[in-house]
What we know:
Largest sheet: 7 strands, mixed
Amino acid sequence: QVQLVESGGGLVQPGGSLRLSCVASGFVFSNYGMSWFRRAPGKERELVANIGNYGRQTNYPDSMKGRFTISRDNTKNTVYLQMNSLKPEDTAVYHCEVDLGHGRYWGQGTQVTVSS
């Protein structure tokens, strides 16, 4: 079955960096674009970034441009999110997601907390 397992979250000080990873299984990873979303307490789910199936196309909301970078390694079935210059408002649970056409799937998420 489809599985997405995120890791790499944690507690970081403002201005710090984290690299999130999401390992996928249960589908042909290189055939599908991938996305990172986040959900902060009391807020709606928010798109962070997405990437085409070969990694050549990436897309970021304006609020994420310049600080976040999405990438993927199709040999490892893994999508990454490099986050720099983190701010307290980046605190959230971060999920990777895939839309396989017949359904959307996401992992359990990884908690990112930005605090001094």
